[in-house]
# Entry
Amino acid sequence: MLSGLLEAVFNGMSIGSVLLISALGLAIVFGLMGVINLAHGELMMLGAYTTFVVQNIFKLLPTPLFEFYIFFALIAAFFVAAAVGFVLERGVIRFLYGRPLETLLATWGVSLILQQFVRSISWGLAIAISLFCLLFFGGMQLINRRPNAESIRTKAIAIILPLSIGISSIVSIFLGNTFGLTITKPWFGAQNVDVTAPAWLRGGLPIGDFQLPYSRLFIMLMTAICLVGIYLFLQRTNWGLRIRAVTQNRNMSACLGIPTATVDAFTFALGSGLAGIAGCAISLLGSVGPNTGQNYVVDTFMVVVVGGVGKLAGTIIAALAIGTASYLIGSGTFISMFASLQPVADFLTFFATTSMAKVMVFALIITFLQVRPGGIFPQKGRNVEL
Amino acid sequence: MLMNTPKQRRGNQLLIEAGIVVAIALILILIVPWVLTDFRLNLLGRFLALSIAGLGIDLIWGYTGLLSLGHGVFFALGGYLLAMYLKLQIPETASNRLPEFMNLYGVTELPWFWQPFHNFGFTMVAILFLPTIIGGLLGYLVFRNRIRGVYFSILTQAATIVFFNFFNGQQKLFNGTNGLTDFKTILGADIGTYQYTFYILTIAFLVLAYALCRWLTSGSFGNLLVAIRDDENRLRFSGYNPTGFKVIVFAVSAALAGIGGAFYTIQTGRVSPQLMDIGFSIEMVIWVAAGGRATLVGAILGTLLVNFAKSLLSEQFPDVWLFFQGALFLLVVTVLPEGIIGLKKLFQRKKSIDTYPDIDLDPDVQSEREHLSN
# Structure
């Protein structure tokens, strides 16, 4: 009985810790810019695929090195996701400040593109994209050097954009026809890919009559390290100070000389990087596919809603609470406790599947928001909003 | 002339508009079926049903500024209610008076809440009011606490997931992932022969929905909605309580989504939890955005265009449709925030501005700014 409860709490905490890493990035970005990134799940998915790629590269190396690929994968996942996040912020979100609802739609568009991107990325597509970037941004650089750049920019874009799209697609179709499958075969395809955990992460730590899987322990440890890292970063570094300042009062910070645009881009990249790390973590828990991110992302949003944007502690509590609650309800741990009360037991049995647990958790969240609409730790200050 | 008082002029304009709407409806009913193949006509019927839901989205998002990412729930709900009535059309003589999927899962008795759906009248009332009530209730619980903006959107999105899981997981009640399909008769007649009637009915309801939205958005209620969108705090300080208005408009749009869902279901012959997918609900928003938010014509036009583009493109290149859709989201939001309807501005002469509500529009400010930057 007790060990069953312990196991449930442990599993719930490990689900919660994945939620926590990804929600952490989202919460910081939301607090700073009031923007929710619907492509956050896809950034996690990119992190998971990066792990897969790094693993395959390390398979070529001698075995002792392969055992430690996961650390390189973590770093790579962080930087890949951060880079994509940076491009996303500079390329799209920056134009939509003050319009958070439009940002939701735009990031949803990005998430669709990213999903299809991993499905159909092949050498041909990669070459086409690089060629397009080279032509388009190279062309724009050349235009910008001219003295009358401002006045001709719109026309220049109208000419260069279709031209570079045309050239790059023709080149990629040509390459596809000449070299055939070697160019057009997708790298990953639509099916799921599997990441094999290194040997030292398989198995588990036996406690009583059940095991704590090492992979889950590793994820929890990783979450703890990320948390401490983020805390120290926000509290002890100059950039952290700037991020906190802009979160509290954007206009005032701008007046005091903080480069808010840079802070935004930087923070967005940081949040995306955390999503990449979370993606690395979920690749240890099961196979990953183009839709993997979607399974996690709504839970992640709920963490942000429940936690509030005032403090990191809110995110931590909310993530662990939601993770544990979903697991406890979904696994039906409570049913045996109410065995004597038939209606209650029936009620709990009805919700004792992973998907039905979400129904229950959502009801709980709505109830909670009736009491505390701003989350556990709402943003303080004299504010008309709440 | 007698026509010149503003009130009469407005009345005349309204009459002209009504004439145009009726004319378009008649063209759709009488002429278009001769031009299109049966397959395309069926598609058009479906898309017209979708545009009823699109009007609902426009009402809450375009006018009131509430971005709901969960209207698929109400849409599918309307579909499920009608579908269940159709599934229960089993002849008296049949030995087993349960829908076949229930036999498959070993259900012996119809669950109590499906019992009244033997009745046609009750089903119609339920399609009208059940999405309305659920929408109103959810809206009340959320708006009461002044949860709005992004928070509201992601809560509706979570609600979508929740309903999806519920309908997907309960095989015995809703046939799970497969949904309800294979409808045979309606009011005792074969359903296949009635497709043209459903098409006409869809148009009739679209016209009604248009009239309702037109009425809601033109009067002082409409002004209140726009005020909620543009500056809710100011509205509150002026002595209004926005909660009630938001609940009403959310409920109305849920009802429109439900009606659209019912018509969509009867024309596709199938309803499944796929309609409650997150993606589908967000797609609804993009129809309206592409057409032009806060214009009712834009909502209908956008729905039809995006869906026809979708069906053409995904027939031709199934792989790239997601790329196109993603690009459409980005494009509409960044380049074309006013949608297709906004394009007509390109052809209009720019009006000179007498007052400057926005400081950026003031030519003095602009010239000053250019002067400073040089």
Q: What stands out?
A: Chain A has one domain: 2-121+186-199+210-371. The interface with chain B takes residues 30, 34-36, 92, 95-96, 100-106, 108-113, 115-116, 119-120, 294, 298, 301-302, 304-305, 353, 355-356, 358-359, 362, 365-366, 369-370, 373, 384-386 of chain A (CB under 8 Å). Chain A has a mean pLDDT of 84.
